[in-house]
Amino acid sequence: MPVTQAPITPTYADSSAGPPVLQLSGISKRFNGIHALNDVGLTIRAGEVMALIGENGAGKSTMVKTLTGIYQPDAGSILLDGKPVVLKSPQEAMQAGITAVHQETVMFDELSVAENIYVGRQPTRAGGRIDWRRIEQEAEALFARLEVALPVRARVKDLSVAQRHFVEIARALSQEARVVIMDEPTAALSQREIRELYRIIAQLKAAGTAVIFISHKFDEIFEVADRYTVLRDGRFVADGALSAITEAELVALMVGRAVNDAYPKAQAEIGGPLLEVDRLCHPTEFDQVSFTLRRGEILGFYGLVGAGRSEVMQAIFGMTPGVTGSVRLEGKPVAISTPSQAIAHGIAYVPEDRQHHGAHLTMPIQQNISLPILAKIGFFLRGHRARETQIARHFAEQLELKASHLTQHVSELSGGNQQKVVLGKWLATDPKVIILDEPTKGIDIGSKAAVHRFISELVTRGLSVILVSSELPEVLGLADRVVVMQHGRVRRVFERGEATPEIVVAAASGIELESAQQEENAA
Amino acid sequence: MKSLFQREPLLALMIVVLVLAVGLKAPVFLSAPSLANLVTDSTLLVMLALAQMLVVVTRGVDLSVAANLALSGMVAAMLASRHPEAPLFAVVLMAVVTGLVLGLVNGWLIGYLGLPPIVITLGTMSVYRGLVFVLSGGTWVSAHQMPADFIAFPLTRLFGLPHLVWIAAAAFALFLFIARFTRFGRDLFAIGNAPQCAGYIGIPTARRLLWTYGLSGLVAGLCGYLWVARYAVAYTEVAYGFEFTVIAACVIGGVSIAGGVGSVTGALLGALFLTVIGNALPVLQVSPFWQSALTGLVILAAVLVNARGGRKGSRQILPLHRNQLEPATH
Q1: Would the CB atoms of B202 and A285 count as touching at under 8 Å?
Q2: How far is B317 from chain A (nearest CA, A)?
């Protein structure tokens, strides 16, 4: 199947839906000099569902935050119903009629469903007395309109995720929202709830509301949306009608052709199996996960958010109770039920969320690095300070850590440098296996390169690395093999040569992409 | 809303049982004068707990209430003793305004400068308490220095009940209305539930906090007058440490220190409960030293009940991955 790769310009022409509700043009947003959005345009019409498509880091969330007033764009214009608007705050965005339904919802757990819809703008009677009866009646009317049965007096904390979405949609309706943004609304929903959501989306459409639908699941996109806009690396790539494009073509637009070769892949000799994981199961998070990590190998783990990759790694590291299956290290079965046992066996896990799990932000750099190895340094021995400084300096140099001195608090460092401190901390434990969970998430490009270089060098020192990442180029650029997970299961394992962006994304999304694969093989 | 109120009947029942149990051992406790005394004794704690409840609901705390009470009370007492001709109304107004201003200072620092309530009110607590000493020079204002109407007002009876009880009842009704039927009150719950989200939907958090602490100060000011008038003495250590009793009453009444949860009725019942314990122990000839230990145990029990109640049903269990998977894989 031929895939056009000519640069496509925004066309905005082919829809039968109403007039444009929202027109964005030339939107740019930079963070620390790095473009998160670069000259992006987007048009959506009344009564239309637009799928916003892109990989992790393509700029979708920045786009949503710009539309909902959380970020202000550095350049570009937003036209709502043809009139330019400036959205200085989330409140202004809501008043302008742009609302978002997403996972980190604007919800007040202890308040009732009805109150959540009207909080901050409760109708009052004379004398400023809140009119509860009207609030509840109007909430009931909204749910009746949505054909959803929801007790308006229930507290939101007792609701399911889907029901919370419905409350937000009801709030959007009550504000006569022109544009409703749904950011991965189906992520935590059951099939039945997803069907109900689709029905409500159809209702919104029929009522002339414009819906921006963000999802990684192609089956959903094709089922729900009319048109698509693809972003890649913060840039507009293409838009058009979904009826005129195939899944394979969309995947190609999403990942682009050029895999960045800026990945310094150090060659290490790959030896025999080091870590063998056999049929690891968890009641809810993952199922029958088996893989082998060889000596000197970087094993990439790719999947959509929620595929269960981090959960598997945490289970291996002894953080999750109730896991069945077996783990063998250097051929010998090991039972790991606490992180300290994992560390003793030579496994290090660098978690995804630095702020919460990785670094001790209010402690100096050198104490962070020495924390897991205090016993080795000798806590009460004289000269332990000097030893600590020496070890910290060693890793700081290797990682090109940018800090004024080693007693600086980690909280004062940039995200990238914080990550380097966390890496240094775990390397100081002298592990055999190091598991890196999203090691470059949220750090700037310069620091990323240093972290990448460092990861690829790790294996030359005899370490084996498991690299969990949602950034495709990173996985493809660094990993010797790529394990693709979907819905808590291992879907495919690719050798370095055979993993192309298209087939990896397809596997992670559960799409059969035979034609594209054959094309690759033929090429 | 229903589950919010489930703890209150329970607490009310416990108070009744406690009163009856004490009465069984010492029948004098159940006599009409004794019970009337109990209610009168509870009034100041009730009013302070009501105001504190709104503060705690916003995820805050006002540790300065007792010091504010002492300072406002001292201001009123000194004014009345130096100017016996001043009308009582003016004296009370003076106490209320003093309390309000002191509260607004807290509210401004916490709301507009975004400083942590516990630190700010801990600081102002010491400042206000110190100011009582500075103002009075460490001397007492005793009963004989106060005008007769100044002392008489709190316990003067109106339709058979002391003014104190009427004022507390009015405060209860007012706070009930604020918490349930005003945007101001509802916004406080929203702020306590999710401060960031409250900003998103346009709740003026800083302004709300300013007036929440202002209200707490106002009530402390009023109670300052009532306290020194009722006990007919004003000195530096008036109500020393009373802020913890006030907070304890809130916690026992089911107000969550984590914010967002609490009811006016709960705060009332918590204050009544503590007053019953405080009045019962002397009747039962229990050493007063036991009183604080018992109060502490009750607080711990209340927190335990809160924690368990909060956990139930608060988390929706996510659907199994596998369940989600079935239809997708065919």
Answers
A1: no
A2: 8
